[in-house]
Known about the structure:
Elements: H1 2-18, E1 25-36, E2 43-58, E3 61-74, E4 76-81, E5 84-89, E6 93-104, E7 110-121, E8 129-141, E9 144-155, E10 158-170
Antiparallel strand pairs: 1-2, 1-10, 2-3, 3-6, 4-5, 6-7, 7-8, 8-9, 9-10
Amino acid sequence: MKKTILVIVTVFIAGFTANAQDRSSFKAGLIAGIPVGDAANISSFAIGLDAAYHWGVSEVFDVGLATGFINAFGDNIDASVGDVEIQAEFEDFQFLPLAASVRIYPTYQFKLGVDAGYAVGINEGNEGGLYYRPLIGYNITGNTELNVSYVAVDNNGATFSIAMVGLLFLF
């Protein structure tokens, strides 16, 4: 089922890429980050892929679709209580976000945005949840963007969050 969703999203984005208009753009790149909040207790580092397709609605406003893949590496924790040593090993957390995307360009160089939707949990026992990602981006060149974002997946009040940095390329 999860592979079917991934194929559908990929075909959907590819279909819109073929019909690109003036300010329409496909972006893809790499993201990396550090889990924060409660996620920092069970995960040490996260990497992933980021992809989005945006349509230019006006000079300063874009809307689109965003997806990708996030893998947060599980952490090993050692603790001792008196003479008793406890060791816990957490598995990796993997998400496939499917989101609507909005970008506002106060200047050509900078952008503010948010992606919101649902993150499908890929690994066993991961139900996924509400996905939101506010971000600030900077155009390094006409085809390259550096961004900083806060990724959160909320499932019934339990939030898995990551502070991320991404490098995207415009196609």
